[in-house]
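Task 17 of the worksheet. Students: predict the tertiary structure of the chain below and write it out as structure tokens. Keep your answer in the requested format; marks are given for formatting as well as content.
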Amino acid sequence: MVGSSKLTSSPAAPRYDSHVRIPWLTSVLIGLVTALAFSTPALGADPDSLSVRITSLSPTVLTGDTTITLTGTASNPSKSPWTSVHAYLVMPKRPYTNRVQLQDALASDSAYVGERIVDTDRFAIIGDLEPGEEREFTIRVPSKEIGLSHADGVFPVGVHLVATNSRGERNPQSQARDVTLLPSINSDVPSVKTTLVWPFVETWPIDKVNPKEIAQSVTGGQLQRYLEAAKATPVSSRTLLIDPALLDSLEAIADDAEAHDIDADVAQAMRVWNADLVALSQKSDTWIVGYARPDFLRFFSSAGAPRITDVIQKSTQEAAERHKISGKTVVWPAQGDSTAALLNFVAGNKTDLAIVAPTRLNNWSQTDGSVVSTQTGSSAQPLLAASPLRLVHAQADTSFFVQHTLSTATLSSLELAGNPKARSDAVTLVNPRWDPQVDQLKPLLSLLSAENASSFLSPVTLGASVTAPQSSVSVKKTTSAKSFPKERSHLTAQLESISSLVSDVNLEPGASLENDRQVARSVALRWRGENAAVQSGIAKAIQDKQAFLGKITLEAPATITLSGQEGAFPLTIRNGTGAPIRVSLTLEADVAGITFAKAPVVRVEPGSSYTMTVSANLGSQVAATMTAQLTSETGTAFGKPSAFVLRSSNVGQFVWIAMAAAMLLVVAAGIRRFLRRRNTGTDTPPSTESDDRG
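Model answer:
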């Protein structure tokens, strides 16, 4: 189910890691793929039939003359063999000195971008590759032999595979290629503020959660290595972004390990992973991502946005406090989402930082720095202009990650040297899907350590950058991203409303938190592109909550007679749910002039009933139709109303009147009798008639 807090998933998966490494690097890659190629036409070979990836480059920073060592892996994913496979190093003789130059030079097919090193013993002879086979190779080339310039800048370093196909054809262009970057520092350069930002968010498919795979990732896979890499980052340059929903999900899987066929020791390892992340957060520059990373663009302009936002904030705060993590708040929309209106909404909710793709900023450049601000109303909203790198191959990408970060710092240093107003830096937003190899990170982490005072990298946290002076930028007003369909917005608002009601009624420990998390997860960014699935899930969640409330009933007799114009009478509340509940009720009459005493709020245990005594005053009415309605403690009505007739009985009054009348009749009769006797003794003489029988 979409709202489950036990098994959940993460965001807009395709959105935050499917973009290119960064625009200028895209040009590097495109340029190397095109401009480095020979103009000889292909000989019928499929250029994608072989693959190659660079796994390491030494040195990581070129200083003076040295031997350049490149290692890589060549593989044959095709169904045909390849023979006489050779790997060649490709480099220009001069480094690129700024981003624009790098982009412009490599975007043109006719631009000079480097030469293939074809000298004997300077390329790798890999040999034959059968279908499915993979081999490692190493290329070593002394920089003196290439005639490299000692100027400061960044060299693109490529590798080409040339091979013969099964038809005996050999394409001189190359059957596969890969590229990395080699910064060159040979003079004193300004130090560059460098930060590694490690986001900890859910990354698995939101509608296809696999607890066993998640457990494996935590105990011996990507999540374990990701946490270890964050731990290895020096505290002076380490920033964490933590979504508390991740901790909740891992905890829920561990607590329900038996149901997921997960061993107890693995479940315990998951709890340890959570504890390690919490401990790391307590000694790091830590920022808290909204619960389940909300898709704000999809609902911020809807009528229910304030209430849903409150639920998200409450869920985030509760989970953060429960897991003992603290930090400022950060909003992380998808790449194309940020608009001026969205950021106004974000600022209105007192968000400390918003992550915005550089492409969403008007006239922004690297010299403005990664941390900027935009004016929202009367205040400035801090922004992090960054996009996580798209990294695919774990081992190879660790090497590229190092080279990319160092190259970014090198170009930033050159910008700082040439422009005293520049704020260029090397803030790197790590991709949460990345599977790093900690050992290969050591060259970068060593340069960031406090012991390496000679490094041109200046370690700094994101928090320190946010508090420093910032360039002011504007955000694009429109976006091509589509908002929620109306039915989705309506369903989400209904879910929030009924969840709030159930939270008021259901006294089961944790039920209210579960309802809030369910609402927060229903607007998670990872549902982007899965609209039918999330709508179905929300509708099911609403039905489940309606069914829960439907098990609470109110019973009343068809007719209730009071002994007078006012009095008390019983109504029965039955709790057919499996949880204790807290409810009250309201009464209404179909005529005016009837008043009721306020009904108390009562607790009813699961499977039990409670008879509530309520009072009414009929006033001048003899009878009326009443409607009793169940409500929450806050007065929200639910369930089916119960109707009955309430009437007054005047029997008591009639009895007293009859008794009084009877007494009056008795007295009247007595008086008449007395008067008759009195009249007889005074006016009528005794009889003198004779007896005629004699």
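Marker's comment: Confidence is low (pLDDT under 50) at residues 1-45, 108-112, 682-694. The two ends are 124 Å apart (CA to CA).
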